[in-house]
Amino acid sequence: MAADVSPQPTASRATGRAGDASPFALGLLLRRAHWRAAGVMGEALRPLGIELRHFAVLIVLVDCGPTVQRDLAAATGSDKAGIMRVVDDLERKGLVVRKAVPGDRRVRAVEITPEGVELFNAAHVAAEPLAERLVAELGAGEPEQLMDLLNRFAYPAEEDA
Hints:
3-stranded antiparallel β-sheet; 58% helix
């Protein structure tokens, strides 16, 4: 009876190398691209005295305004302890302040300071040439195409509805 069963075709096995055709290839490529981009953007932030984890919080605060730590953790993919350490770091540097939330004395909202906004803007200036270096090997129009594809991948249309 076992002889009547045809063998299952096997998928390519993950290698994590260029040209990997396994079912894991996309995730592995995205991870590698993230590591590369994060390393380059980290270079831009290092002279400003912050890391990507700090900048991620500043992005949320600039975009959303004062935000409670629980929501900062969710928005940045951090855990409660990690976000507390990041906010503590930013507060020590004078880039954010914690303020009481009206109606709930146990909760504090994190708010960016004018110094935080200044550093946020300086980070963009510092990152510009490094961002260009990241895509230097792509052809004309390809950086824009890559951004379009990644946006569509990261924010599928059905999630917008």
